[in-house]
Design a protein that fits this description.
The complex is a heterodimer of chains A (139) and B (407). Chain A is built from five helices and three strands, in the order H-E-E-E-H-H-H-H. With 139 residues, chain A is of the alpha+beta class. Chain A has a single domain, classed as Alpha-Beta Complex (Sufe protein. Chain: A), CATH 3.90.1010. A three-stranded antiparallel β-sheet of chain A has the order 1-2-3. The longest helix of chain A is centred in the C-terminal third of the chain and has 21 residues. Chain A starts with a helix and ends in a 14-residue tail after the last helix. Chain B is an alpha/beta fold and 407 residues long. Chain B folds into two domains: 142 residues, Alpha-Beta Complex (Aspartate Aminotransferase, domain 1); 241 residues, Type I PLP-dependent aspartate aminotransferase-like (Major domain) (Aspartate Aminotransferase, domain 2). In chain B, strand 3, helix 4 and strand 4 form a beta-alpha-beta unit. Classes of the chains: A alpha+beta (139), B alpha/beta (407).
């Protein structure tokens, strides 16, 4: 199976690899997946208190090239978005952008889950109710 | 100093290139000598038959067999099927119990599953962390209805070589036939059907620098005389055990490949094992890198290494333009399940996902190994910088204590 150019580009030059201070009130952290499944994504957002805009996003991913590319792309999309807009990112947008084959769709789902988990972590820290999501059916 | 030849092929357990000497031997049999080896009434047939007879001798010689004991097939999968189904059918009046192991190739395991539906009883032996079956356990599960022990010679993923001579002694002692899948071993290490006590053995040409689409089943003719029921109906070729027009060019190539293997095995192995050891030693210098399977009882040209906290497919992507190899990672298969062989060794799924198999071969150069060491090490380090698991490990967090959200 050949990878798309965009997956290769994100894999070779991943955007926003790193770690934000997870104890900070403005930082939301989402850790999804499991080592046994071969994918673990940690995605973090830093939210500007005044504007509610995501001013920084970082990721670290254990997984295949498509998982790395999906999380790299997600961080790029998150930066500059309001938290509410960030919630609208759908895994199929990632599939389309990266041309993921069907067998790699779960990588995009994981990225969407990581975004939601990070946002909920941020909301919880700031006394807001967690957003409930319908589970996507995968695998 | 030799030039570095790219891409580097380190997937020789999957298949090998044809040796140019093999191709040369085959060529006339596509054009001038195109006869059907079963045509008894004209020179075209005679020439083809002569060529097949000669190849049969070359093949037999490599494994210390009599040429009459070689049945040509389309490859090891067919040979595995013919051996297991053929014995199950032929010896039905004697019993229905077969003993095999969980780390066998799918061609053996799925064949066993198939005959289970037809009334066979199959015992699947577990292996130890080295990939070896327990001889005591093997002997303890033999019963009066046992007709066959099917244990591979060497494993395709980790290269572990089973204690074949000990297994065959147990089989003999209890009057049970011993079949071994020799696909990875024949042509790579010395295999002798008599001193190894083998009754049936599957092997194939394309793992030893011969063409694809041709293999053999060794079927012992003396002490004991073994028979298998044919699984395809037709012209009764190959002493009635395998019908179908013989693949003359393929068989000629297979024969030549066996002859070369016999002649070059010792020098090839000395050189390849040295390169394999160099590669393994260098890669084990990385933190948290582990060899899977036995390092003592192992093929000289393979090493299977897990690089903890990085995922195999992600790792391969770092260099797969230039280096071809395989991973036990789930992502390389459609099933998303990691390698059942590695799991059978007792490896957690996480380590199975992190494994790479390096299979060296006759044409692997030292420059290619140096290049591989450099590329793999660099990518492991790069991906660990990107791995949340590596970060947690470095912070001293016990990953087993985290409640992962299984999806």
């Amino acid at each position: 199976m050949a990878y798309s150019e965009k997956v290769i580009d994100h894999y070779s030059n991943p955007k926003n690899v790193g770690t934000l201070d997870k104890s900070s009130k403005n930082v939301g952290t989402g850790l999804v997946g499991a080592p046994e499944c071969g994918d673990v994504m940690r995605l973090q957002i830093e939210v500007d208190e005044a504007t509610g805009v995501i001013k920084d996003a970082k990721f670290k991913t254990f997984g295949c090239g498509s998982a790395i590319a999906s999380s790299s792309l997600a961080t790029e999309w998150l930066k500059g978005k309001s938290v509410d807009d960030a919630l609208k990112i759908d895994n199929m947008d990632i599939v389309e952008e990266l041309n993921l084959p069907p067998v790699k769709i779960h990588c995009s789902v994981l990225a969407e889950d990581a975004i939601k988990a990070a946002i909920n972590d941020f909301r919880k820290k700031n006394g807001m109710e967690e957003v409930r999501f319908n589970e996507k059916v995968i695998h | 100093m030799n030039m570095l030849k790219l891409p580097v092929y380190l997937d020789h357990n999957a298949t090998t290139p044809c040796d140019p000497r093999v191709v040369e031997a085959m060529l006339p049999y596509f054009t001038d000598q195109f006869g059907n080896a079963a045509s008894r009434n004209h020179p075209f047939g005679w020439h083809a038959e002569e060529a097949v007879d000669y190849a049969r001798e070359q093949v037999a010689k490599l494994i210390g067999a009599d040429p009459k004991e070689i049945i040509f097939t389309s490859g090891a999968t067919e040979s595995d099927n013919l051996a297991i189904k053929g014995v199950f059918d032929m010896y039905a009046s004697k019993g229905n119990h077969i003993i095999t192991a969980t780390t066998e190739h799918k061609a053996v395991l799925d064949t066993c599953k198939h005959i289970e539906k037809q009334g066979a009883e199959v015992t699947y032996l577990e292996v130890n962390p080295e990939g070896l079956i327990s001889l005591e356990e093997l002997e303890s599960v033999i019963k009066p209805s046992t007709i066959l022990i099917a244990i591979m010679y060497a494993n395709n993923e980790i290269g572990t070589i089973q204690y074949v001579r000990e297994i065959s002694k147990i089989a003999r002692k209890h009057g049970v036939l011993f079949f071994t899948d020799g696909t990875q071993a024949v042509g790579k290490v010395p295999v002798d059907v008599n001193s190894d006590g083998i009754d049936l053995m599957a092997f194939t040409s394309h793992k030893m620098y011969g063409p694809k689409g041709v293999g053999a089943l060794y079927v012992r003719r003396k002490n004991p005389r073994v028979k298998v029921t044919s699984q395809m109906d037709g012209g009764g070729h190959e002493r009635g055990m395998r019908s179908g027009t013989l693949n003359v060019p393929g068989i000629v190539g297979f024969g030549k490949a066996c002859e070369i293997a016999m002649q070059d095995m010792e020098s090839d192995n000395a050189r390849i094992a040295k390169l394999r050891d160099k590669l393994e030693t260098a890669l084990l210098k990385l933190e948290e890198a582990y060899v899977n399977g036995s390092r003592e009882s192992r093929l000289p040209q393979v090493t299977n290494i897990s690089f903890k906290y990085v995922e195999g497919e992600g790792l391969m992507m770092g260099f797969n333009k230039d280096i071809a190899l395989s991973s036990g990672s789930a992502c390389t298969s459609a099933s998303l399940e990691p390698s059942y062989v590695l799991k059978a060794l007792g490896l957690g799924d996480d380590l199975a996902h992190s494994s790479l198999r390096f299979g060296l071969g006759r044409f692997t150069s030292e420059e290619q190994i140096d290049f591989t060491i450099e590329q793999v090490s660099r990518t492991v380090i790069k991906l660990r910088e990107m791995s949340p698991l590596w970060e947690m490990f470095k912070e001293g967090i016990d990953l087993n204590k985290i409640e992962w959200a299984h999806h």
